[in-house]
Amino acid sequence: MFKSIFSPVQAWLLSQGKCVGCGMPLSKATHEASGESSEKVTCKCHRIYIFDKNTQKYRRALLNEA
């Protein structure tokens, strides 16, 4: 039940380039290289994202990427 409520909100926040936990713009978070076409982004609330340079979009990192 809760997943059907929170999932669209989290997807909207990521499409806006904001952290799903604290709402901080991910452009202000810590970026480090993680391959040729991606960056590992760590928010101040310690959530980890992957930024795809080709599509200019963020996504949550998988467990093996963290």
Secondary structure tally: strands: 4
Summed up, the domain count is 1
The overall average pLDDT, rounded, is 95
Main sheet specs: 4 strands, antiparallel
Q: What general form does the structure show?
A: globular
**What fraction of residues sit in β-strands?**
25-35%
The succession of helices and strands, N to C, reads: HEEEE
Helicity range:
10-25%
Low-confidence residue ranges: none
Count of helix runs? 1
Indicate the radius of gyration in whole angstroms. Answer: 12 Å
Strand order of the largest sheet: 1-2-3-4
Structural class: alpha+beta
* Measured distance between first and last alpha carbons: 28 Å
Which terms summarize this structure?
alpha+beta; globular; 66 residues; four-stranded antiparallel β-sheet; 4 strands
Q: How would you describe what is shown here?
A:
The chain has about 70 residues and is of the alpha+beta class. It has one domain (about 1-60). It has one helix and four strands; from the N terminus they run αββββ.
Kindly summarize this structure in a few lines.
This protein has 66 residues and is α+β, with helices and mostly antiparallel strands. Helices cover 21% and strands 27% of the residues. The protein has a 4-stranded antiparallel sheet, with no helix packed on it.
